[in-house]
Amino acid sequence: MAFLTEKKKMYTARILNFNDHVPYYTYFRNGAIIVNSQGKIDSIGAWKAKDGTIFVNGDEFQIENLKIIDFGDDLIIPGFVETHIHLTHHGFPISNEKLDEWLQLINEYAESRFMFTKEESASKFEARIRRLTYSFIDYLFSHGITSAAIYGPYNLEAYKIVWEVFTNEFGTAPRWILGLTIVSDKEAQMPFPVPSVKDIPQLLCQSNLDNSSAVFSFAPRSVWSCSDDLLQGITEILDGKYFVQSHLGETTWVREQLKKQGRDESDIKILEDTGILKAMKWGIFAHGVIFNDEEFQTINRYRNKLGFSHTPISESKTQGFGHYLNELDIKSTESIFNLEKYKNNHILWSLGVDEPWYYPVSNVLKYAKKIHQSHDTHSNAFWLYYYTLGGAAVAGLKQGQGSFDVGKFADFLVLDWTRITETETIDEMNSQDEEAYLMYKLTSVPTNKFIVKTFLEGKQVFGRDSSYA
Ligand SMILES: [Zn+2]
Known about the structure:
The protein is α/β, with parallel strands linked by helices and 469 residues long. It is built from 16 helices and 17 strands.
């Protein structure tokens, strides 16, 4: 019999890890992660060597059984878990468009990157769809995202192609919650065929829904724009097996718009009344920021299988969505949600970028911090936690992702220490303490500036020279 034992890998560096309790992190100045051949973590912690034995957090490993990869001074952190991002919004060719027309187009045909006329078939565009999907995945990895809840295309054929790319090549663990975006007939006045509820069972039969890195998810685009029939149709298929993602109307701006139309139903209530909350396996809902007590009670009944993603544009009292094209605008938002209420009700929440054309995904932490005007070390760690382990909890992926724990997947980022310690913003710092400095820096500067390598299940999926310009 062949020699089958593969050496475990030992990655050494500074290591920042996250956990569920104050102060939400642990930091190892001489840290190590031991990764087995399945890409899972066998041990994590501070390490030392003695007489050919490596000790990591009390575990012992013989040095000849390890392949040691030393990242020196650099920093290793868990991969980010993004809980609300639109695939088809990525990289829209804005340069050739007039801005107003472009925004109009986005508003009307938000998932329009996969636009076909009724006469055209997706297969004609297969190469383009693949290229876009790979480009989106490159974007995720270069920004440190190793798991995500994604709004995918409306077009069923396009969805299948995207699904195949995510499933076949990027990991073995469930990690890409891929939404088939669904709209009501009324909203579906688009120059391409959109899936109807009756198409869905056929899709489910064709997809390998278990043991796949892509997780099928229904994504009724926004609850307030779906007909009861559509929501009920989804409920009938859910059967406790499938994830749901949707935009909620519980924001000041949407509520005002709905009131003008004579509607004042709560979306979370609609989701309960149509049976979706009961029938879904897991739910990830974006933008629910202004729940009243009754709505919090509804959520509470299902809190073991749903979470909320708050994005920098979740709550605008003045402009609505679509007016945050630069950092100046973000200052005028009032995107503050009631953290205490979420905490007191033990309701899961985390952060999402939503539409990455507005700002790079690596600015999410910076904006969350700015919007909430929090600047101390504790709250800096808090935001990092909510984009890693907290994100995994919201996405229903906490068992395998979000932090370095024995048995979880080795999804991690290597951050260039030289870049982290550049002094461009150091004047705002009060503390020279390394941990405080790190927390401050990682939440103040776009994080992709520091990321030089991204690992998924112990394999490198993104890398660049640490001295890149
Ligand atoms: Zn969105």
